[in-house]
Amino acid sequence: MAPITGRKVFYMMASAFGVIISVNLFLAYSAVRTFPGLEVANSYVASQHFDDDRAAQEALGWSIDAEVHEEELQLTITNVDGDPVQVADVTGTFGRATSVRDDQIPAFVFDGAVYRAPVVTAAGNWNLRFEAIAADGTIFRQRVVVLVER
Fold it and tell me: Which of 38, 97, 117, 127 has the smallest number of Cβ neighbours within 10 A?
């Protein structure tokens, strides 16, 4: 058996660190490529109206629930009395929390009680980022976590 020399130790250490650095670079590239990390275009501008927007939203007294049943996203909006709310318009994005690859724009249809939209899902954690406009013009925005079980 050959003796361990300084040159061998250097090559072993360089190889080990080379593997670690390569894996870290690959993971960083994958993270940046799959998740833009952008919630709003300009956070400073968005912060200037945050308190007023939140107060207007809370004044509506709406409760929100979302779930998926058999590839159908069901969004429930109720008022303080528990009655369904029919909004002037509702739009949103339904997708994974960690990637924009599976993002979908649901075409909601109100059936008198629930907003329904066909979606394609798999088991796991999903997010619905939606915006609804109340009859008085108040904009209601919320992110709802939807757990899909199979």
Answer: 38
